[in-house]
Amino acid sequence: MADAVLFEFLHTEMVAELWAPDPDPGSGGKRRSLSVLEGLGFRVGQALGERLPRETPAFREELDALKFLCRDLWAAMFQKHMDGLRTNHQGTYVLQDNSFPLLVTMGSGPQYLEEAPKFLAFTCGLLCGALHTLGFQSLVTASVASLPACKFQVVIQKS
Amino acid sequence: MADAVLFEFLHTEMVAELWAPDPDPGSGGKRRSLSVLEGLGFRVGQALGERLPRETPAFREELDALKFLCRDLWAAMFQKHMDGLRTNHQGTYVLQDNSFPLLVTMGSGPQYLEEAPKFLAFTCGLLCGALHTLGFQSLVTASVASLPACKFQVVIQKS
């Protein structure tokens, strides 16, 4: 489906573009690039959260919001559902994607692992932005143990 | 359709991000930003040109390639066809979109006209990149007379 491919290509080139400017890997450049990508993702996630069809006008329960991300948001972005959702019932959620599309184009050897964070930052921001639109403040991080699988950890911030 | 919305949101935020860094509008900053957006578009267009289904393995005629952009490429990006295609039969083509989706979110008053180029640069690059994949060197520029309509002018470079 060309639409999905279009988003993936644009994401790849955007990462390449935003990663390139800082010639000094020892400086804060990488952190800055990650933060720019996260910020972009946040704003896209906010906008997307407003546009996706929702059966209920509000999500009172955190778990409903997280299920919405795993099903509807993931389907809109990647034409599939998240593979797993676990929670400690204390505001921490782990979302598992066994084959994350934005990592699939990378090689799968361990030597690529350190390249992974730049392909996850946008989506971390996007999840956080979508949750923000749904009324939840959160911290979202991602980790990769074995490419192209990855986990997003969402910690809901209590006000 | 959320996929299309996703691309449009990402494009909007990317333009905002790449437009912002240069605080001095009098310098070459705007030209540089436009050129970065065009470059991004070019690479996405190249990749997209390789992935879109093509009935014939090669486009011998320029006009076939241009029709492909107006139908298949536009459908993949914007779920519609280009509204018009004219040519002088000497290598110059004018592609008309009466309601270009990446301009629709802008206001339509004449005061917005000068903002338009930054929303067109990526797509100019993309058309050029897709043509490159199809075997044609080109120069692509865009113009807006009345928002949200716009015209892309493609000049095929003879080798």
UniProtKB/TrEMBL annotation, chains A, B:
Short name of any one Pfam family annotated for the protein: TRAPP
Protein's recorded name: Trafficking protein particle complex subunit 6A
Keywords in alphabetical order: Endoplasmic reticulum, ER-Golgi transport, Golgi apparatus, Phosphoprotein, Transport
Keyword Phosphoprotein included in the entry's annotation: yes
GO cellular component: cis-Golgi network; endoplasmic reticulum; trans-Golgi network; TRAPP complex
Family: Belongs to the TRAPP small subunits family. BET3 subfamily.
Taxonomic source organism: Mus spicilegus
Function: May play a role in vesicular transport during the biogenesis of melanosomes.
Keyword Nucleus: no
Subunit composition and interactions: Part of the multisubunit transport protein particle (TRAPP) complex. Heterodimer with TRAPPC3. The heterodimer TRAPPC3-TRAPPC6A interacts with TRAPPC2L. Interacts with TRAPPC2L.
Location in the cell: Endoplasmic reticulum; Golgi apparatus, cis-Golgi network
